[in-house]
């Protein structure tokens, strides 16, 4: 297998890797009772779920900012991101109560004070956040409409940071989804980055990071 040029674990401290390892154990343990990830992929939890979620650390979120994870399931990517970025606030939203209860338990056991899990439909969440993230939950047009309803403005002008918007993990051919997004949300910009060229791991051949933003209008109106 060719060498990877980047690995999301490289930038983490030993304590953060230990926390992720404790999260992996909890996910495995709870997955026997609650369907948090598919049983087949549970064997490969570290690579397919945790490393994949950590691909969203390709860039950072500004200290003090907040992100909402739509359809968090067992806390993916919410919990890995909360561990990687202890100075942001992470809201984890899911419509299935037992998954949200599991995420609350994970946050408590991992002593993560920056994770808040909420049970209900994304369309009804009453909070707000600077960024949205998501993995394997809904088409881009839905995710974007959820994001625009709750977004709080932020200045994030450093190229080290994600541009304010929706940053999600997707797989396969996205052309129809992107077309539908443009149809629903005129003027948004979509940037796709393949994960395989970064990680050189076969599991990620079809996987992408997709960033959706709304560039400021030339007149300065939002
Ligand atoms: C395929 S799972 C992915 C879970 C997690 N993001 C992951 O990558 O493992 C999709 C999750 O989205 C949740 N979901 C789907 N539609 C939703 C909605 N409208 N509001 C809240 N949660 C939703 C489901 O309950 C489910 O837990």
Automatic annotation (TrEMBL):
PANTHER family xref list: S-ADENOSYL-L-METHIONINE-DEPENDENT METHYLTRANSFERASES SUPERFAMILY PROTEIN
UniProt xrefs under InterPro entries: rRNA_ssu_MeTfrase_G (IPR003682), SAM-dependent_MTases_sf (IPR029063)
Role description: Specifically methylates the N7 position of a guanine in 16S rRNA.
A single GO cellular-component term on record: cytosol
GO MF assignments: rRNA (guanine-N7-)-methyltransferase activity
EC number: 2.1.1.-
Binding positions for S-adenosyl-L-methionine per the UniProt entry: 71, 76, 122-123, 135
Protein localization: Cytoplasm
Name this protein carries in UniProt: Ribosomal RNA small subunit methyltransferase G
Protein keywords: Cytoplasm, Methyltransferase, rRNA processing, S-adenosyl-L-methionine, Transferase
HAMAP family found in the cross-reference section: 16SrRNA_methyltr_G
Chief site of localization: cytoplasm
Keyword Methyltransferase part of the UniProt annotation: yes
Gene3D superfamilies per UniProt: Vaccinia Virus protein VP39
The family this protein is said to belong to: Belongs to the methyltransferase superfamily. RNA methyltransferase RsmG family.
């Amino acid at each position: 297998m060719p060498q990877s040029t980047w690995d999301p674990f490289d930038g983490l401290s030993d304590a953060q890797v230990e926390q992720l390892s404790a999260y992996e154990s909890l996910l495995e343990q709870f997955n026997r009772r609650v369907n948090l990830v598919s049983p087949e992929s549970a064997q490969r939890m570290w690579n397919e779920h945790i490393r994949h979620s950590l691909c969203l650390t390709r860039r950072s979120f500004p200290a003090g900012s907040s992100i909402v994870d739509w359809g968090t399931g067992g806390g993916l990517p919410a919990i890995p991101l909360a561990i990687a970025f202890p100075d942001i606030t992470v809201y984890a939203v899911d419509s299935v109560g037992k998954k949200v209860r599991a995420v609350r338990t994970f946050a408590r056991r991992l002593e993560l004070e920056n994770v808040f899990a909420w049970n209900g439909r994304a369309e009804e969440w009453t909070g707000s956040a600077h960024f949205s993230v998501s993995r394997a939950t809904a088409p881009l047009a839905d995710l974007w409409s959820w994001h625009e309803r709750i977004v709080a403005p932020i200045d994030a002008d450093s190229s080290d940071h994600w541009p304010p918007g929706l940053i999600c993990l997707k797989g396969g051919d996205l052309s129809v989804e992107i077309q539908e997004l443009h149809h629903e949300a005129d003027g948004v910009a979509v940037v796709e980055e393949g994960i395989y060229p970064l990680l050189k791991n076969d599991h990620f051949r079809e996987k992408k990071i997709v960033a959706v933003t709304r560039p400021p209008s030339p007149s300065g109106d939002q």
